[in-house]
Amino acid sequence: MNLAVSVESGSGLPRIGVLPGENSLSPEALKVAYRMGIVPRPWQQYALDVAMERSGDAFKYREIAIICSRQNGKTKILTPRIGWALDRGRRIIHTAQNRLLPRKVFVEVAKHYPQSKVRYANGQESIELPNGGSYMIVAPQRGARGESADDLIVDELREMEDFDFIAAAEPTLTESEDPQVWYLSNAGTEKSLVLNDLRMRGIAQAPGIAYMEWSADPEYAVDDRRGWLQANPSIGHGNNSLDKLQALFDRYQAAGELAIFETEHLCRWVQSMQPRLVADVIWQQARKPLEPPLRPSMGVSVHPSGRQASAVISWPQSDGSIGMRVEANVTGDPIDLNKLAADLLPRVKAAGVRTVGYDGWTDQHLARHFDEKVYAVENIHGQEFANASERFVRALENGSLHWEYADSISDQLPYVSRKQTTGSAWIADPTDTLRPVTAVMAAIRAVWLASNPRVAKPAIY
Questions:
Q1: From CA 166, how far away is CA 45, in angstroms rounded?
Q2: Residue 355 · residue 376 · CB < 8 Å
Q3: Do residues 225 and 123 both lie within one domain?
Q4: Among 41, 37, 26, 31, which residue's Cα sits nearest to residue 111?
């Protein structure tokens, strides 16, 4: 299976996709499309050419994956394909987490078969033709057990976070002599287990799968219009335009939700749909050589699993900015916190650390090793941690925070988001509670203390 990589903007070719062959039934589907008043766009015709390719008397690809940004007409490909299947007596099952998507296709198909037996009631949508062809919608929660099909269509695959429905639906195809599964989606997150597995198999050129992805090149910045064109092959057709995308981009950027723009309109994978804590470009711009630490503060963090712990120090620099570096980032199963503390204390003393910030819920067993007669030990949690989260981000964005020797923070930042609390307020939050981000949490506390030095209590004589 050959992979075609297209760098030609607006060509309609997928950035990742198989090349169409010479023996495809797509002309038959195109006749159905024209009968229905649909004129496929170039990228849709490309997808049909590949999906309906034959090998002998059967489909060359049992699995079809069409991954493309929203509002480009993925479902318009389905309508003529379903009509073609019905005309040939094939049985089709269609599902999605949001039943509005398959119902929209169902209603469109049904109006072209007025003489057939059609049920419109919610949860019972079906079309039955005298030739044995049928089309029905099923909810993923109910599954497709007990049904038989030749074609299975799974819409919005990114929403499926386990394989339960797929496992239940696969047996419906066992009686078919020429089955085919269609998956449609835009990009997902690390929790989109079914889609991610499909993508890995597609890119690995697993036999029997045609994976086609219209997405922005990962090397292009989020505002690079070359990527917009790659991920939106319908631009220039109908009402799709770059100006409309620009308006969407401006809206998401103003709301601090570019992760949503990236997955829905650039079709690029993100760790979480929550806004990222810090854009990678801003974080990387903050890297620079630092002055030696001067009366630094330290933040610590221990993951609830006990398998990762971090310590980060932060201090004011002579130019008025704040410096930061990771002092420790260790793993264990679990970590020996007594040993970690014994290793940290001499270095902390040598660096001249004055204050230590921790979270009483997770870090107290490490924090107790810092004598409060020597250090100002502060429990930074709740609203104070939310304030510290915002200060950390603002300091990076306005260029007043710099770092060196903090690669563990670089690795973990993609897995930390801004979780909204009340109104416009937010707090740094892991996108996955099982993935440790202790270096980031420790850094937030360290920077908070370094940029907000304790005010000495007035002496009373």
A1: 27
A2: yes
A3: yes
A4: 37
* 221 shares a domain with 73: yes
User: In terms of Cα–Cα distance, which of 182, 217, 175, 211 is closest to 196?
Assistant: 211
Residue 197 and residue 193: Cα distance in Å, rounded?
6
Q: Residue 456 domain-assigned?
A: no
CATH code where residue 115 lies: 3.40.50.300
Q: Is 61 part of any domain? A: yes
Residue 230's nearest CA partner among 220, 238, 239 is: 220
Please state the domain count of the chain. Answer: 2
Residues 277, 391 contacting (CB under 8 angstroms): no
Of 200, 231, 262, which residue is a domain's last?
Answer: 231
Out of 231, 251, 268, pick the residue that ends a domain: 231
Q: Which domain holds residue 437?
A: 280-451
Residues 24 and 145 in one domain: yes
In a domain, 301, yes or no: yes
Cα–Cα distance, 84 to 191 (Å, whole number): 34
Distance CA 39, CA 25 (A): 17
pTM: 0.65
Same structural domain for residues 297 and 218? no
* In a shared domain, residues 213 and 352: no
Helix then strand then coil, % of the chain, to nearest 5 = 35, 20, 45
Q: 439 lies in a domain?
A: yes
Q: Could you report how far apart the first and last alpha carbons of the chain are, in Å?
A: 85
The tens-digit pLDDT sequence of the chain (461 residues) is 344 433 333 567 899 998 898 899 999 999 999 999 999 999 999 999 999 999 999 999 999 999 999 888 887 899 999 999 999 999 999 988 777 788 889 999 999 998 899 998 887 889 999 999 999 998 875 555 567 899 999 998 888 877 777 777 778 888 899 999 999 999 887 778 888 888 989 988 888 999 999 999 988 888 899 999 999 999 988 778 899 999 999 988 887 778 788 888 999 877 655 677 887 778 989 999 999 999 999 999 999 999 999 999 999 999 999 999 999 999 999 999 999 999 999 999 999 999 999 999 999 999 999 999 999 999 999 999 999 999 999 999 999 999 999 999 998 988 888 888 776 688 999 877 778 999 999 999 999 999 985 544 444 54
- 105 plus 225 within the same structural domain: yes
What one-character-per-residue DSSP string does 313-370 give?
Answer: EEEE-TTS-EEEEEEEEEE-TT--HHHHHHHHHHHHHHHT--EEEE-TTTSHHHHTTS
Give yes or no: residues 189 and 284 share one domain.
no
